[in-house]
Batch of 4 targets.
Target 1
Amino acid sequence: MQTPDGYVWLMTEAGLARFDGVHFTRFTRFRNVPGAIGSGLCVASDGTLWVGLEERGVVNLRGESPAYYAPGNGLVTGSVRTILRARDGAIWVANGASRFQNGRWQGWPIPEVAASRDTIAEDRNGTIAIATTEGLYLKRAADREFSRDPALSASIFRVSTDPDGSLWVMGPSNFGPVPEGVPGKEHSANFGFFKDRTEGVWFSNSFDRGAHLARSPRELLAMSGAEHLGVEEGLSGYLVRTYFEDVEGNIWIGTNNGLDRLSPSSFQAVPLPQFQAGTVKMMLLVARDGSLLMAPLVGNTLYKNGLGKTQLVSVGSPWIAGSLIRSTGGLFLQRRLHAE
């Protein structure tokens, strides 16, 4: 998560960590707060950070003065592993269900036989869904209580929403048809979906480990993105646990073995229509107007790239390609011009 002050926060097995752009600072406990930090993490509409505790309860970080909420008075007991900010600004936690709104907690019990999977989601209509061992429990915006969806009464491992706000569930079959009346879809997506600012949708699944990026609805429906990033391509782990995009457009991927950051590239490809990329060596020179002059070492041609366009500016003998020479100071470009 990222708070309005620019800090990036992440939850790890060793506690909460804060990244300031250069260094990580780790927090394993908060002053005057009992218990170790758990795994729930959420940024509220007021910009404060909510953190779940392994030994029950939650903390709301407001500068240097954390507010601790102990179990009871509407807040669920047990470890808090999932925290959700709803569309109306309310804070929800799973393991049962509790909502913090207007300064107080309200709880909804889930039958003991239906052990919570600690995953909670909200669809585009404001329906709150909780995955349990006995199926999917739903509370629609107008409902007073949670009720089990009769079409999904088997164990549900995870519930999430796709970029359109529809609920998706992961069950023991991993993949199967959608029962009539179910408000979502059953598939093998392990850790939900994430939509970045370019409209690309990131997801992971059980069949092809790593991160997938779908750039069209067709690719998302097939659950096979046009782009795949795995350990072979340098990803820190094979199991993706979370995705996040910061205000600068960096994509953060948390895996079972570390943290990866994908940053927008500053490089741009300069097209040369007459040559296949990488097959011809070029001499390069920056002109006074900021454009780029390119002379292939094969042939007597000169290209100029400027304002996003590449054009042929000279053909023939007046231009003779030079060569790269090495000295103790590094590499230098040597250019010889012969005029007739």
Target 2
Amino acid sequence: MRSACAQTVDDIEVIIVDDASSDGTAALAKDLAARDPRIKVLSNESNKGPSGSRNKGIRAAEGEWLAVLDADDEIAPERSQALLDLAAASSADIVADNLRLERSDGKYVGSGLVQKKRPYALVVSPELYLRQNRILKDRFQLGYLKPMYSMAFLRKENLFYDERIRIGEDFDFCLRALLQNARFVITSEPFYTYSIREASLSSKLMRESLETLIARSQEVRGAYPVHGESLKKAFDEYDHFLYRALAFDSFVSDLKRGAFSMALRTALHQTEIWDLIVQNGPAAFYKRVRKLRGRSGSHR
């Protein structure tokens, strides 16, 4: 919150959405609001998840641009002004910056997009956005970026988050904006510090989440006209990597429960996961065998 309030842009509002927290978050937020008139606190009576909370913020927002800042992240003081300048220079409806990646202990681990000697800008089409969100394939997925949206565009298109989604919600929201002809421009300069936490929901691939993403992809295809062979191929490729991740999840799950024959069957029938098995499978297999040996030894 301090980083949000420290923006060099003077005319801002800061909306805190407390998602029915059970700790001292709500009290702290209200204390901050009492000391800074730019802060507005909204509270959910029950847990709505990220999508429901974002929608509550969108409906309450009075500004011309909307930016999402997750609770464990922070932004540089010049971020808002830099993105507003980028939007003005590029006539964009959506603008975003690079991510500065940090571990929970504060150690810098790199940036999301590749940084070069000179900053650069990137115009993102729906095809590029889909192709740069291939699960278990890309070094970095564009869906992790935290864009700033034109409120005029969101209102014109009546665009909100799908509240059924609790993982990949930012990707889904941005993709639908692009399919509604939004112009999206990214700068390679990192003004947003993204905290990487091993236990975070988005850091783990769960079968239910993958199945939700697959179902959602089909819904989006049905709801928005997919014109052109290039966009259709991009959707097909995105779906392919979701199914690939689902197959690999099955392989790992079988290893964890000691069903080695089933894991082998999955590997033989799903050849597209062989590269993932080479990268991760041997370690998982060895770990599981050691665990089983330890159990058998304890019963002797």
Target 3
Amino acid sequence: MKALIVVLVIGTIVFRIAKPIALQFSAEQDFLRRRNVWFALTVTAFLSPSFWLYVLVATPLFAWAGRKDSNPVALYLLLLHVIPFTPVEIPIAGINALFPLDNYRLLSLCVLIPTALRLRHSTDGLRIRGLTAMDALLLCYGALQIAFFIPPDLPNHVILPDSFTNALRRAFLFFIDVYVLYFVVSRSCSSRRAIVEAQAAFCLSGVLMASVALFETLRHWLLYVDIATRWTNDTSFAFYLTRGNALRAEATTGNALVLGYLLAIAYGFWLYLRLHLKPKQPKMAVTLILWLGLLATYSRGPWIGALVIFFIFAALGPRAFSGLFKAGAVVAVVGGVVALSPLGEQIISVLPFMGGTIDSGSVAYRLEVTQRVWELIQANPIFGDHRPWIKMEDLRQGFGIIDLVNSYAQIALYYGLCGLSLFVGFILVGLSKTYLFARTLMSSDPDLASLGACITACILGTLLMISSNSFELGLVKMYYVLAGLAAAYAHLSTSRETR
């Protein structure tokens, strides 16, 4: 109850302050409905003794809100992390379980799939029609995942066998977890306003998570872990991860690294959104909250990723040289102030390239894992190694896991260079089209060009950050959301609105 009260107070303050800003990008009815659903689901999650009671409440709410909302993608992004990641197996007679259900999949089933069905019958001439090169690359990557079964790294060296039923399950989960998400974002965001509204909704979600993260670090209290442990009976969800003497906040993401990544993307969106704010609105306050949330994760990769996004956005602006100079000056001044403050010592202590020694062993461990993975990739370069854990047992650490925190190495290990090429090529197609379209608009429509620069910067920052993070949780969702936004933005070049 104490945690619920704290979360409700934080949520009330954030929504009240954010309302005037949010209403510049979305209709008031949509904003109020999304806010009310967020509060209803938060209260339900904290008070519910079972995940299935939460499902009973959330399913009709998601379905109703998704049908009423003028931009279901914005609704999806705001509610994506309303509760922590808590996978619970769906029991079924005859087999152990059907598949794990969590908030991500519940949103997909109740919001995204109904939206996709409506889009299939839509007469909107502005949206993407048929399959594109990005669709083909993504579907080929999915086919590779369906064809090759990678057994999970289970304790006691148990290797689960594959079956036709399991392949069908993988196909279904790829469809609802990945393809439907990309399809709905790329087809539903068929106008400039829809893209911007989706970014604003995710930015609002980022401010909520950053505010919770700041409280968690200051009070050394993870507010949401009780929900996951109560619903799953898994005490590992309640583990407090620290770096030095500081608690690494995770809010509703389930992982400090993932939270840092999501806040870096929210900050990237904010770089564009703040250009639309009136002079008296709190531009610096939102920036400060997002960065304090980033610092509360004590995650080095997202810090660097957010800075890279900031510099790329400045470099792609209408006055690139002056933009980069101003960006460098801002970073130098802010960095100097932070370095002289008590917070500066804590930040420097976790940065090995600045002489920091805290958790320096994790850097050495990750380098060792990466070297071993590279050897396995060289041995199986085309389609990867489908039983990699057997050959890496000596790298198993104290938590009983082999901690591979490089998404590129992870995908190349499992699916070879073929899989890695499809995975990266998919988003690079959207990135290149977005960048080229934005460049053509620099003089004729600077605002739309800045929107393209924002998406480009966020994708490049993501491609950097996933090199030091496992491809999991909210990171996966935002990778495909960014790809969908890039596809939707590039398609604006053919619309009557842009012409």
Target 4
Amino acid sequence: MKIKTLGASILFAASCAPLLSGQQLVYIGTYTRPPSKGIYVWRFQPSSGKLTPLGLAAETSNPTFLAVAPNQRFLYAANEDKTGTIGAFAIDAANGQLKLLNSVPSRGSGPCHVAVDPHGKWVFAANYNSGSVAVFPVHEDGTLGEATGFVQHVGSSVNAQRQSGPHAHSANLSPDGRWLFVADLGLDRILTYRLDAVKGTLSPGDPPFTKIAPGSGPRHMAFGKDGRFAYAIDEMLATVTVFRYNSARGSLQELQTAQVTPEAYTGPKSGAEIAVDPAGKFLYASNRGDSTIAVFRIDADQGTLTLVERVSTQGKTPRNFAIDPSGAFLFAANQDSGNVVEFKIDPATGRLAPAGTVLELASPVCVVFAPAR
């Protein structure tokens, strides 16, 4: 089944009807090249995997990464423009529409990642082009204040073409919200910052960064379910680096490097997204080079990874994917083929199987979920 939703013209009279208990809203951010106009939304029924399009949720420029607040009332978007901004939206849980509350400068160019702390008090943005990270206070009404914390990265690494300067690619909160880990592709470092939860400022950890293999290009991170292990996907080498996480010090100890691509693979390497399933048993990592997702089993005691399978994303360039809160489905956003493919997750093996639904959407780049009412 294919569901086409390409523009703001697809809005439904029935979209204001109350949604059934347990359903989710699926928000997908896009690059706003025509015909895409911003953030789109679907109603999702986890019990059956059924999706119903609700149209354009918000018209906004290049919302390439999204994050939902812990209270599920607000959504924040990184507008990946030359002069970057972070937008705050109120979620209408009945019809999926997003109301713009305000927008603040990201304090850099090309913000490509946004995150919210576990208490919903602070929003963090990573500016890729300019290589910096910023912290913004969240007000009671969901609006954002001007940045309270800001760090400009400096330095370079071994790839002269892609690593001549810093490129902060994600801002990742520790499970307890005390530490912020910023994966910088340009430096081959994951920088560690202690968050002042009262002032919203950042100070270097001890150690201030974790160095990974030269030319790796760390991009995104995920933590295991119990918080003892952390995982980083490395864009340039298409690898996953496994760490033991020390929550007292905010430090990362490297344990393993797992290949996202096959051993004899000679094609383009472009690791993109990483996620751990809600049960904490499996890790998923995408390679845009051959449009696949690698599935790994997580060793519960050691945190290390064992390959289960590699599967096609049924499209081109899986920049992002997300697992629904039930852990039953994975949605792969294929940026260059303009589709989002739904997969069913086998709870025993972690394996992926196409669920039969394909959402056709121009330049999809980020998928998030929020409860529907």
